[in-house]
Structure formats: structure tokens, C-alpha cells
Amino acid sequence: MRDEFRRSQLAIAALFGFLGFQYSTWAARIPMLKSSLDLSNAQVGLLLLATGIGAAIAFPIVTFLMRRLGSRRLALVACVGLTLVLLGLAVVPNQPVALAVMLIDGVLVACLNVAMNAQGTALEVKYERNTMAKLHAAFSGGIFTAALIASAVTAATTNLLTHFTLGAAILAALATLASRSLLPTDLPTTEKAKGKLTIPSRTIAWLAVAMVFVTVVEGAMNDWSALYLKEIIGAPPAVLPLGIAVVSATMLLTRLFADSRRAAWGDRQVVLAGTTIAGTALSAALLIGGLIPTLIGFACVGLGMAAATPCLYAAAAKQGPNALTLVATMGTLGLLAGPPAIGALTNATTLLYGMAAVALSALLVTACTTQITWTPTREPEPARATD
């Protein structure tokens, strides 16, 4: 039994790592895409927005495909599509084609996001162990690994096709690993849950809103932390990567150990405590200023927001597949459309106000959490288990 759990856990973790790796690979080469396609800053923003639009229109598509294919087959289909998207971005000839590719990327990201979280929740239910936080740690690990590889490849060559072909090979390996031990069935659901789309309940609506704000925080910290250190703090170039580094590192480490806290405190308390820490610490850092307070504030964002996403996905899955699809789609929308929205606010004001909106988003998750009806979490994965 333990070996079966481990195999499925590894397979599903490969899906999470796949999504993080694919996203980070193309995001790391945005400057090169801008140069090769001769885009303005506004056109780059539109390119990023296209992925958010794809995620926004994906909800009915994902709902249909989840019922028709199930999470296992949908995840693998999405993996194939996202690998092709990455290769396509390397050879797009102009902005209109790039916009179409990014629109497709948004739809496929939404598909994989729903499918992999459905698999993760089904794993928790089947084996009665908390593991969602560890699975989301694999997503963070995928982002981090892709960033390191992008840095190494960029130092060797500026050729996008070379980089993205290497990325596609790694994605294919992850998809192959995932395909071997994914769960064949999804969560058991009622007939009502399987039926037509209905108006979301109060709890589902609050879960969806909370997920938008959570992923806005995550996406904005990924995209704007380095620029904040440069423009507002005046940090030297060598220090700029520390912005995303402290966020991603604290988030990754926290997710590796968060499942035991979920069992001990309950998902509600974990989210409340974490988002409160993230919002207040970042607000304090913005008010105090200076490099060290800012990096501490960034680290607290990673620490506080790390468990929010897996807790919200787990809560949504317990409400049924349609609820999970809606919440995951809104999460994808927040992750992809949030950074351009922060950019628009920054253009109208300053980056200080943009980062203040990130802090406010974290505190709004706290407010949403108080309105959600939470069900008890499962026992944590035991440190030692017997067959």
C-alpha cells in the first residue's frame, strides 16, 4: 500500500513539476521573445494577457473535458499540448501568431491545473494522507529548476529553439514519468456533481475569489520583485535575483513541511495565519524600505502564501469536480492575468503602489477565508508506515 502511494505521489508530482517548468521556461525568455518579434512593452503585456484570456475562456472547455476524459487522460493530453506550445513559441514569426499560441497555452494550463489537482485530491482521499502541499512544492521546484536551466542556457546561447527544444525534452520525460502511475479514476461524486453546470454555492464562490487573490500574489512576486528591488530600493544588479529567490525558496521549503501543519491546525487556520503574515509583513516592508526589510518581507510572502494554494484546491475538490474546475480556472486566471494588472497599476502610479496591491491581495485572501465553510483535513502522511 505504501509503495502504491509513493508511486502515485511521484507521478502526480511530475505533473506539478511539469507545469511549473513549462511556465518558467518561456517566462524566463520573455526579453528574447520581445527582441526577436520586435515588440513594444505594451505588446509584451498583451502577449502575457493572452494567456490570462485563454484561462478565462477555458472553464466550460475544461468542465466538458473532465467529464469526457477524466483527470488522468486530460492531464496527459494537456502535457502533450503544452510541450508543443513551448516548441511553437521558439519559431513564431510575428505577434499575431504568438498571441494565438499564448491563448492556447492559457487554455492548456487551465486543463492541466484542474487535472493534476483532481489527481492530488483523489490521492489524499484514497490513502487518507495529506500530500497536496508536497505536490505544490513540486510546482515550485519546477519553476526554480527551469529558471536555473534558462540562466545556464542563456549564458551559452541566445537561440530560443535550442533552449526550448531542451525544455521540451525535459517536459517529455516528466510526462512519461507521470503516465506510469497516475490514478485511473477521479474522486467519487454524486450525480448532482456530475451533471450540468449550476450556480456556485456561497462557499465555492468565496473559494474562487480567494484563489484569484492567492495566485495574483504568487504571479506578481515572480514577475515584479526584481524590478521593485531595482527601481524602488536601488539594489545593485547582483542582488536583484534575490527577490524571486527568497520568495521561491521559502515557498518551496514551507510546502515540503506544510502537510503536517494542515493536519494539526486545520486548513482554515493554516490559510488564515499564512496570508495574514504575508500581507502584514509585506506592508511593513514597503513602509520601512531598505534592502534587508524588503527581503525579509518577500521571504514572509513565500512563507505565508505557500500552503494557501494547496489548501484552497483541496477544499474546492471536496465540493465536487465542477467546483474544482471553477476554482482552478480562476487560479490560472489570477496567476497569468494578475501580473499584467499589477503592471497597468504600476504604469499609472509607481511600482510601490503596485507592490502595495500585492500586499492587499494577500490580506483579501484572509478576509475570504473567514467566509468559507471548511471540512476537516486528513491525518498527515505518517513518518513511518507499514504495509
Automatic annotation (TrEMBL):
Keywords associated with the record: Membrane, Transmembrane, Transmembrane helix
Gene3D superfamilies on file: MFS general substrate transporter like domains
CDD domains named in the record: MFS_MosC_like
Protein name: MFS transporter
PANTHER family associated with the record: BYPASS OF STOP CODON PROTEIN 6, INNER MEMBRANE PROTEIN YBJJ
Source organism per UniProt: Kribbella yunnanensis
Keyword Transferase: no
InterPro entries per the UniProt record, alphabetical: MFS (IPR011701), MFS_trans_sf (IPR036259), MFS_Transporter (IPR051788)
One Pfam family cited in the UniProt record for this chain: MFS_1
Spans through the membrane: 43-62, 74-92, 98-116, 137-158, 164-183, 204-221, 233-258, 270-289, 295-316, 323-345, 351-374
Subcellular locations according to the entry: Membrane
Membrane topology listed for this record: Multi-pass membrane protein
